[in-house]
Amino acid sequence: MRIFGLTGGIASGKSTVSGMLRELGAHVLDADVIAREVVAPGTPGLAAIAEHFGDVLAPDGSLDRKALGARIFDSPAERAALEAITHPRIRQAFLEQSWALAESGVTEVFYDAALLIENRLHEGMDAVVVVWVPREVQLARLMARDSLTLPQAQSRLAAQLPLEEKRRLATDVIDNSGSREQTRLQVEALWSRLREVPPGGA
Is 47 found in the same domain as 15? Predict the structure, then answer.
């Protein structure tokens, strides 16, 4: 099986591209969905979080994300502790789901992950697709989407690896600064091109 990484930045349109790939028949595993699955009620992941962080469970036994967020906010050590619990479980779940798809005959899968490059998950993947927009477009879309002021939007972007840096590490770039149809044409071309490469091919 060939694994393609799909990433971008906040308000760059990664979810839009992911949806288009699904519409074209591609198999996409979403890191955010897996991250929720590994801390669902009754999982070892949730038990480990509760043991380390204490009272971070909601009345229904699910993870109280707001309470947990308050615990790790402005605390690099606590954030690192959370990542030490969740990241290995997310990676293992991704591998297990990939293996299951491979056993069913699927030959390509996209891994949709916002922190693909930051966590060095892109290394060794068969392709790394970055959904890119110019910084000014990213700022404008973020402000409109989340009703933020310019300083607030700039602060959000400053907390992420810049899209330009991600672009330099990409094997393929989807320019999402134009119309939806322009983006779709690029996604269709990308999917067609990636499927043409035989397993083990260059």
Answer: no
